[in-house]
């Protein structure tokens, strides 16, 4: 079993405050992208009309 230790320090030249802002923005972008994907998928599978052949 692995021992739990201190987390590795992250030093990529971006402050903790700015990293948090970036992570929050990316999280919102991911959520919006997934929501758009689900809506597009739903519309695709529910196509109806006279020009649609099944």
List the helices and strands and how they pair.
Layout: H1 16-45
Number of strands: 0
Strand content of the residues, in percent?
under 5%
Query: What would you call the quaternary organization?
Result: single chain
The outline comes out as elongated
Structural class: mainly alpha
SS element count, helices = 1
**Separation of termini?**
55 Å
Name the helix and strand elements from N-terminus to C-terminus, one letter apiece: H
Low-confidence stretches: none
| Rg result | 22 Å
Q: Describe the sheet with the most strands.
A: none
Specify the helix fraction band. Answer: 55-70%
Mean pLDDT: 86
Describe the model.
- The protein has 54 residues and is mainly α.
- The chain has a domain at 19-43.
- 56% of the residues lie in helices and 0% in strands.
- The protein is built from one helix and no strands.
TL;DR of this structure?
This protein is an all-alpha fold. The protein has one helix and no strands.
Characteristic key phrases:
54 residues; mainly alpha
């Amino acid at each position: 079993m692995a021992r739990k230790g201190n987390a590795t320090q992250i030093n990529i030249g971006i402050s903790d405050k700015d990293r948090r802002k970036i992570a929050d923005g990316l999280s919102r972008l991911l959520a919006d992208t997934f929501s758009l994907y689900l809506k597009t998928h739903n519309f695709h599978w529910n196509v109806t009309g006279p020009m649609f052949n099944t």
